[in-house]
Amino acid sequence: MSRPEIAGPASPADPAEVLEQTWRDPPGLWGRLSAVNHKTIAARFLYAAFAFFVLGGILALLMRLQLARPDSRLIGPDLYNQLFTMHGTTMMFLFAVPVMQAIGIWLLPLMLGTRTVAFPRMNAFAFWIFLFGGVMLFAAFLIGMGPDAGWFAYVPLANADYSPGKRIDIWAQMITFTETAALMEAIVIIVTIFKMRAPGMTLDRMPLFAWAMLVTSFIVLFAMPAVMLASTALITDRLVDTHFYDPELGGDALLWQHLFWFFGHPEVYLIFIPPLGVISAIIATFSRRPMVGYRAMVLSLIATGFLSFGLWVHHMFATSLPELGKTFFTAASLMIAIPTAVQIFCWLATLWTGRLVLRTPLLFVLAFFVILLAGGLTGLMLASVSLDTQLHDTYFVVAHLHYVLMGGAVFPLFGAFYYWYPKFTGRMMSEKLGKWQFWLFFTGFNVTFFPMHIVGLEGMPRRVYTYPDGMGWNTINLGATIGAFMIATSVLLFIVNAWRSRRRGALAGADPWGAGTLEWRAASPPPAANFDVLPVVHGRYPLWQPAALPDRVAGIDPGLREVLLTSVTAAEPDHRMLMPSPSPWPFVTALATTVFFVASIFTPWAVVWATLPVAITATLWFWPRRSESEQRHQREVRP
Amino acid sequence: MFRLVLSTVVLPLACLPSGAAAQAVQQSALRPAGVQAATIFSLWNFTLALCAAVFAAIVLALCVALWRAHKAGRAAGASPGLAPDLAPDLASLQQPERRVHRAVLWGTAIATVGLVMLLVADVWTGRMLARLPMNEAVKVELTGHQFWWEVRYPEEGVTTANELHVPVGRPVVVTLKSRDVIHTLWVPNLAGKRDMIPGRTTTIALRADQPGVYRAQCAEFCGLQHALMALPVTAVAPAQFARWTQARGKVAPEPATDSRRLGRDVFVRAACAACHTVAGTMANGTLGPDLTHLASRPTLAAGMLPNDRANLQAWIVDPHRFKLGANMPPSPLPARDMHALLDYLESLE
């Protein structure tokens, strides 16, 4: 086979064109369902997670309308309880975790200098599972079968005795279901980070965002099984009468809380550790210098991950546990502030010694700084046993957790979106609208949540659908409702900005911010194969540091879905590997799995008969196909 | 939709100073009226001061950092355009920044000291609370139900519901149980909260040091009407408390009028007695609140309605109008029976 010497842009032998053909997803509806490109899947993940964020926000607005004044009869207790359960469930399970993983799936191959993620079909499968699980939950809510025992679903309230009907069954089963998606994504991310980094990108040179995603994925791996176990035990209690949580028959109501919070507390950290990586990227770029204390940052991330498993009991201080045990968990909860302090000081030092360029992404990061700081400090208050007995289950906690989760995740996410939008679409978002959005969001957020600290101390419990007049809570609640609508307006403004900029934004070019990490080397938006030539890395900021030789990987065939695998720590080239091609079977298998999970809510026998379609579709998924064996053959005959 | 916005947002705005009524109801951790709450309040003040100082220091450092970096950026020729055209400063990649690292280390050390201070203060407060004298404590058994409170004074032989009386200056040890789901007793003016967990017995100690009525509310989400599960806690002088327990220890008097006698019969016949107890009669149900001294209670339906004849009647006719999800079934009685029943219930003082 001979190749023409000079290739025009349209010639099939042009490497860029060949790469595009090799890596792009097939056209047509069937092709879309077969897509495995990491950017396609991640973009769908992002859109779905954002849609769930908006839905969760609408639920919150309805709650705030009900609470705007005392003794309101706008929304009855039944609907209100469903609203707050769905709000918590949506934001935690259908927005916060998936959106972080989606950003990881989109960015990591670009940041690490490779063409795809590990296990691209499992990646697609995980997306479909997540989407179907989330849609099922909202479908149930819309037909009046929304869960109503709180997103924490404490037993015995969530037992069959006190929550009859199918509401909690649907909830418990869909939680288990969607969390399998999170587990699979964690595996995809871990393997991608460990095995697919560009040659030369040792662990010590990896972007902090990749470190953050790595730590997060390990937390997912150890925390998610706890909640899946807990919800599976709950559903067997409800459906086939096991007695895990029934104190009268040898079970224990507190077992649920231990299992749930063993997941639930790390959950908070797995929501806000990825943003720590985002922030490090944004601060370095807009301070125009490398991050201070790279290794300290990495160690802090790892320490936060470890410690996050040691403090779940501070959610249970009111349950009457032994004093010494409580002191241990107080100490652990306070200790986790130390790695956070290290990171805060490193960011401060980076800004202090940097040369500032203030743009919208950095604005969100600075707001994160202030808000997370406040949320962290109120967290210290909640970690104290004595204070917690007053603050627990009041609006103080509502304020605290929104400071931590919105400050720790939503603010940086907006920052991340403004920052990476040019890479995503090839165009810049409007700075003017961005600043408007920022100030509206920041103000609305503080108007909504800051006074909640006070109303909590003034005795307002959380999860109440109404409150009597004359308690001194009216003004603050009304204010919070107004603030919530400011937040909603700001999110609308964001949507408008993202929508408009897609067509009208200024063209971005490959590296509009002058950033130093590898994803900015790819074109904006990146082609299907990410890079025309795979880079070799010589430092932490490859785009800032002058390239040494070799600067590119040689010997990868553009006509095959081939990637270079490297060793775990030193990132030395290991071997070349063929990645799987697009396939509709992950989609079909996800459908079959959904049938399995949904049917098992209504009849335990589904566990028997519904394994059949899952087994058949999964077998077809892995059945060796001709085109793939041809690819392999081709690879063997070529040098 | 417009009406909805108008009714929820605009109208309440017009009567903003409604917070002025705050003095009437005492449910606040910021106005302690008992030694436990006061001890926790001191810890709160200390923690708040420390955290506020840390917050101020770090925000100040952030502002200075921004100002410095802004100046450095201007000096290096940063333009206000969209793209930062400033070349990155890579000096730190060549030589380590010892001074900066030392500053980070110092910051972390100071933060650690602050955290240790918080831990010590917390442990110290915990020990203070544990060592409060508990001799001659009044014993109370409190049982949580969906959605009301069963109150027993085992030593005084008093059973009541939805009202807790405590003597000022004497410790009260409350044993907490639950009949159905998890509830939480929380009297913020007197003490922190403690869960009531089915299958377990927990206790909490409190002491009211000033007379008054303090509102407690269930703090753990316990189902449909979690929001409407309140408990007035009345702190009175010890002598008055003794009188109260004595009065509450008595059985219900024999009905004095025909109407009341008929009312008692209705009470037994209309199945009220299946769930409610009136001591001294054949009514000895235990699913609902004990009604022996119903007329002396300030509120109906767990702190929800003022206790008067109209509310009582409305409640009996259709409890779910007020408290959807309450376990009491509606009892539409003929007018004569209803009046007799109300006469009878109003005599239960």
Automatic annotation (TrEMBL), chain A:
Cited NCBIfam families: CtaD_CoxA
Pathway(s) annotated for this protein in UniProt: Energy metabolism; oxidative phosphorylation
Membrane topology type: Multi-pass membrane protein
Pfam families: COX1
Enzyme class, first EC level, given as a word: translocase
Protein name: Cytochrome c oxidase subunit 1
Cell location: Cell membrane
Keyword terms, alphabetized: Cell membrane, Copper, Electron transport, Heme, Iron, Membrane, Metal-binding, Oxidoreductase, Respiratory chain, Translocase, Transmembrane, Transmembrane helix, Transport
A single MF term (Gene Ontology): metal ion binding
Signal peptide residues on this chain, from the entry's feature table: none
Membrane-spanning parts: 45-67, 87-112, 124-145, 170-196, 208-235, 268-286, 298-317, 329-350, 362-383, 403-421, 433-456, 476-496, 585-602, 608-624
This protein's encoding gene: ctaD
Cytochrome oxidase subunit I profile domain residues: 29-538
Function: Cytochrome c oxidase is the component of the respiratory chain that catalyzes the reduction of oxygen to water. Subunits 1-3 form the functional core of the enzyme complex. CO I is the catalytic subunit of the enzyme. Electrons originating in cytochrome c are transferred via the copper A center of subunit 2 and heme A of subunit 1 to the bimetallic center formed by heme A3 and copper B.
TrEMBL record, chain B:
Cytochrome c domain sequence ranges: 258-349
InterPro entries assigned to the protein according to its UniProt record, in alphabetical order: CcO_II, CcO_II-like_C, Copper_CuA, Cupredoxin, CuRO_CcO_Caa3_II, Cyt_c-like_dom, Cyt_c-like_dom_sf, Cyt_c_oxidase_su2
Cellular component annotations (GO), alphabetically ordered: membrane; periplasmic space
Gene Ontology biological process terms in this record: ATP synthesis coupled electron transport
Pfam family, one: Cytochrom_C
Location, primary (coarse class): membrane
Keywords noted in UniProt: Copper, Electron transport, Heme, Iron, Membrane, Metal-binding, Oxidoreductase, Respiratory chain, Signal, Translocase, Transmembrane, Transmembrane helix, Transport
Metal-binding keyword on record: yes
MF (Gene Ontology): copper ion binding; cytochrome-c oxidase activity; heme binding; oxidoreductase activity
Enzyme type, top EC level: translocase
EC number assigned by the record: 7.1.1.9
Transmembrane helix listed as a keyword: yes
Span of the signal peptide: 1-22
Coiled-coil features, chain-numbered ranges: none
Transmembrane segments: 46-67, 103-124
Swiss-Prot/TrEMBL catalytic activity: 4 Fe(II)-[cytochrome c] + O2 + 8 H(+)(in) = 4 Fe(III)-[cytochrome c] + 2 H2O + 4 H(+)(out)
Location of this chain's protein in the cell: Membrane; Periplasm
Domain (Cytochrome oxidase subunit II copper A binding) ranges: 135-247
Topology term for the membrane: Multi-pass membrane protein
CDD domains: CuRO_CcO_Caa3_II
Homology family: Belongs to the cytochrome c oxidase subunit 2 family.
Function in brief: Subunits I and II form the functional core of the enzyme complex. Electrons originating in cytochrome c are transferred via heme a and Cu(A) to the binuclear center formed by heme a3 and Cu(B).
Protein name listed in UniProt: cytochrome-c oxidase
Gene responsible for this protein: coxB
